[in-house]
Amino acid sequence: MPAKNITYHTETYVANPVVTLAVMTTQPYKSGLDITAQIYSNFFSNNPLRKMTRTEVANLLDVCRQTIYDWQTQVIDPAPHEHAVIISGEFYSKNNKRPRKRLRGLSVHQVFIFWLISQIMLVVTTYDAAIPLLGRMLEMFPKEDFDVQLSKYLKRHRHY
User: Fold this and answer.
1) Positions of E strands within 8-125
2) What is the C-alpha to C-alpha distance for residues 117 and 126, in angstroms, rounded to an integer?
3) Spatial separation of the C-alpha atoms in residues 142 and 137, rounded to whole Å
4) Membrane-spanning regions, if any (predicted)?
5) Cα(154)–Cα(23) distance, rounded to whole angstroms?
6) Angle ∠(13,15,16) on CA atoms, nearest 5
7) Does the model's pTM come out above 0.70?
8) d(CA 50, CA 117)
9) 3-class SS string, 131-154
10) Phi and psi dihedrals of 52, rounded to 5?
11) Smallest Cα–Cα separation from 109: which of 80, 78, 87, 130?
């Protein structure tokens, strides 16, 4: 399936330099922990809710709801590729969801994955180019690490 070109609204934003740096390097290095902490901090500054609808995620990321759907069908769910296991595992399996089933409320971790895609799409222009970058980003930001960061965030901000 050919990759779709990105719609105009995602091309007009300036990429977060910290995320862009992490996307470009995709390798933890000397100060890698500082970068990952900064990326989590940037995401949590959006005050994501516990469970969110696609419309709420679209509003959070300032994109249209169709873009969220496109990201799921073109980046997360496409035909098998070398990053399919990690992407599908992080988005579905680790969140106790099944691929191609109706999702009722997106977990904070799934919202984080959509947020990563939004940041990656600022750097690349096709969904095919975003897939390997997302795969490498999810290797750097596994759900287990995300859960630790989320619990720290919730303790600091007393969200329940």
Assistant:
1) 51-52, 106-107
2) 11
3) 9
4) 106-127
5) 26
6) 130
7) yes
8) 19
9) HHHHHHHHHHCCHHHHHHHHHHHH
10) -135, 150
11) 87
86-101 burial by CB neighbour count: b if 16+ within 10 A, else e? bbbebbbebbebeeee
123: nearest Cα among 33, 27, 24, 46 = 24
DSSP structural state of residue 107: E
> pLDDT (tens digit, 9 = 90+) per residue, 73-112?
888 876 677 766 677 767 665 665 656 556 677 888 888 9
Neighbours of 9 (CB within 10 A): 11
Burial bucket for residue 129 (CB in 10 Å: 0-12, 13-18, 19+)? middle
Q: Which of 151, 154, 57, 156 is nearest to 110 (CA)?
A: 57
56, 66, 80, 114: CA torsion to nearest 10 = -30
